[in-house]
Each structure stands twice: as structure tokens, then as C-alpha cells.
Amino acid sequence: MQISLPKNPIYYLLILVPIAIIAELSHADPVIVFILSAGGLIPLAKLIGEATEELAIYTGPKFGGLLNATLGNAAELIITIFAIQAGLLDLVRASITGSIIGNLLLVLGFSLLLGGFRNGIQAFDRRTAGLNATLSLLAVVALAIPSLFDRLLVENPSSELLFSEGVALIMIVLYGLSVLYSFTSGNKPASHHDEVEDHTLPERPEGETGVIREAAPVHAARWTLQFSVIVLIIATIGTAIVSETLIGAVEPVTQQLGLTEFFLGIIIIPLVGNVAEHLVAVQVAIKNKMELSLAVSLGSSLQIALFVAPVLVFISLLFGQRLLLVFNDFELIALLGTSLIAAFIALDGESNWFEGAMLLAVYLIIALAFFFLPAPATPHP
Q1: Which of 14, 316, 375, 380 is geometrically suited to a Cys-Cys bond with 323, CB 3.0 to 4.6 A?
Q2: Integer Cα distance of 299 and 277 in angstroms
Q3: 308-327: b (≥16 Cβ within 10 Å) or e
Q4: How far apart are alpha carbons 173 and 170 in whole angstroms?
Q5: Pick the CATH number of 9-202+215-372 from 1.20.1420.30, 3.90.1170.50, 2.40.320.10, 3.10.180.10
Q6: Are 300 and 277 in contact (CB under 8 A)?
Q7: pLDDT per residue over 160-189, tens digit each?
Q8: Strand pairing partners for 262?
Q9: pLDDT given for residue 167 in this prediction
Q10: Are 370 and 330 in contact (CB under 8 A)?
Q11: Does residue 211 surpass a pLDDT of 50?
Q12: Is-contact 79 269, C-beta < 8 A?
């Protein structure tokens, strides 16, 4: 089989990976190290996604879907693990919040805006989008309950930890059920690779209304199984190394630039770990495939809320840390407002560019608010 190497311009940023490592070893300015590391993580995250998709073709639709469901946010998971190891728990919680609101406001906003400009009013299956939006609301409620009740449990550390662990376990089970439902209902979870095949939507006959269904994309493997495994291993190792340099530069960067760890976690870290997936959602929206675009943006936020966040609770224990599912009031307000807006967007089964502009406006307001927030107001160090 001939191996088709990726031609995406994002991969030119791979040159930043060795440069970031050299800059770290030579004790360069932490701001430079942080910028180089952030740039180098973008193509590494893309490579993990590509390799995962190639492996999914060989393993079959069911196991492949499970592989996508568990490794879809592998890069961000690796970054937050190193943040946990460094004791930057505020950064981790802020990153979880930032990933959710980034997918539901920034990514979905750009998708609706550019897709609407290109194609006018776009239709999608409101039942599937509504189910994902409802699940997003449920996920936010699941994150909010430990945060609110923790104020009564703070005097009993063992109880509050057990409470967070119990909620985390329930969320993981719910995520597993959602993946199972997607298989049994015939809706394959959306993934990075789905934008490769450019399927043109059938035109709706004049006078007819209703949702246009996209044809299920059929993919042929571009890489051999061995090459896919090698790429996944190398990209994962590279992500781990560069993540360590990124996290190591966080505290000096916050001091030099006057930023808070909270702002870096809310805005910067999620963009670095998810930018490749963000581009996918926007690209397919421009191609008038809004069902796939919504599945990517909503699906990624669900994976962060229902899988990555609760898994990090248990991973933190391996490093002697206590990552509780306890978010401050500002995070909870942002999460609740974001999930409600996304749910309203999904209700009518149609979207337009102005809805995208509104989502982007809300994201900018939230970004400004967190930029000027002087300190992370969390009850736990």
C-alpha cells in the first residue's frame, strides 16, 4: 500500500517541536519557550488525530468508533496530565472550562458564521443536534453539583474527594452509554477524518422542506497499519515532551506578561490542544455539511465534560494530587450560559451566519471577562 503523507500546512509547524526543546534546554526566555511549545503542539495533536483515524479503518467501525471516542482529545489530556503533575490544578480546571466553551461558542460560532456566509440558511437533523445539546446541559449540571455542594463538604476532605470521585464515575458511565447509543442508533461518532471526503449534498427539490441528510462518508486507508501505529506512538511521545516544556513555562509567563494561570487555561491551552479539530468543524460547515460540523463541535465538548474531566480526577490521585470537580462561580456561569445558547441554536434544525456572530460575540465577552479577572477564585489550591 502506498503511504500518502499529509499535505496540510499545519504540519509545517512541526519544525517548532525541536526548536522548542532546544530553547528549553538552553534556558531561553520562558515566553519564547511557551510560544514555541504551543505552536509545536498543534501539528502533534493533528497527527494523533490522523493516526487514530487510520487505525480506526483497520479495526472496523465499532472498535474504531470507540478508539475515536477515547483518543479524540488525547493531546489535551496529555497537556493536563503534566499540569496536574506540576500541581497547577487551577490551570487544569480552567482548561476543562475553556475547552467546553471554546467548542460551543468559538468553533460552533465560526462554523455557523462562515457556513452561513457561503451557503445561506443551513439545515441539520435537529433530533441528533438536540440530543447532543441536551447531553451538554446535563454535563454542565453534573459539573455544577459538586461545585455547589462542596461548600458544605469542605470541612470533610475525605467526603468531598469521595463525592467528586462518585460523580466522575457516573459521568464516565454516561459517556460510555452515549457512545453505545451512537453505535446502536446507526449514528457513527464524528471524527477528524470525516472532512477528507468531499461529498456534495443533494439539492432539495424546489418547494420541498426538511433536513438534508449527508451521505455517510466512506474512507480508504491511506497509511499502513504499522505506519499508523508508529505515527501515533511518535506523536504521543512528542506531545508529552513538548507538553512538559509548555507547562514548565506557565508560571514564568504569567509573571512576565501579567496574565493569570486561569486565563491561560480558559483561552490559550484549549486552543493549542484542539485547533486541528476546530478547523475540521469550520471546513465541513463551509462545505454545507452542518450535521457533521455540529457533531464535531458538540461531540468534542461532550468528550471533555463527560470523559476527560472525570478521568483526570482519578489520574490526579496517581500524582498525589486531589483534582476535585469543583469550579468557581465564574466558570459555572460561563458553562451554563454557553450550554443554554448551544441548546437554543439546535432547537429549530436550521442555522444562519448571524447566529454564528452572536456565539462569537459571547465568546469574546467571556474571554475579556476572564482576562481582567485578577485571580482564580477557587476554594482549593
Answers
A1: 316
A2: 11
A3: bbbbbbebbeeeebbbbbbb
A4: 5
A5: 1.20.1420.30
A6: yes
A7: 889 999 999 999 999 888 888 877 775 555
A8: none
A9: 92
A10: yes
A11: no
A12: yes
pLDDT band with cut points at 50, 70 and 90 for residue 61: low
Say which residues have a Cβ less than 8 Å from residue 257's Cβ, sequence separation at least 6.
31
For residue 316, CA distances in Å to 225, 273, 308, 354 come to 33, 19, 12, 41
Confidence grade of residue 310 (pLDDT, cut at 50, 70, 90): very high
Q: What percent of the chain has pLDDT over 70?
A: 83
Contacts 24+ apart (CB under 8 A), 329-334: 329/377, 330/369, 330/370, 330/373, 330/377, 331/93, 331/94, 331/97, 332/143, 332/144, 332/147, 334/97, 334/101, 334/366, 334/369, 334/370
User: Hey, what's the cell of 360?
Assistant: 462569537
Give domain limits for the chain. Answer: 9-202+215-372
Question: Which one-letter amino acid corresponds to residue 84?
Answer: I
Q: What is the model's pTM?
A: 0.81
How far apart CA 290 and CA 226 sit, in angstroms, is: 34
| Phi then psi dihedrals of residue 86, to 5 deg | -80, 0
277 within 8 A of 296, measured Cβ to Cβ? yes
**Is the pLDDT confidence value at 6 over 70?**
no
- Measured over the CA atoms of residue 12, residue 17, residue 18 and residue 19, the dihedral's sign is positive
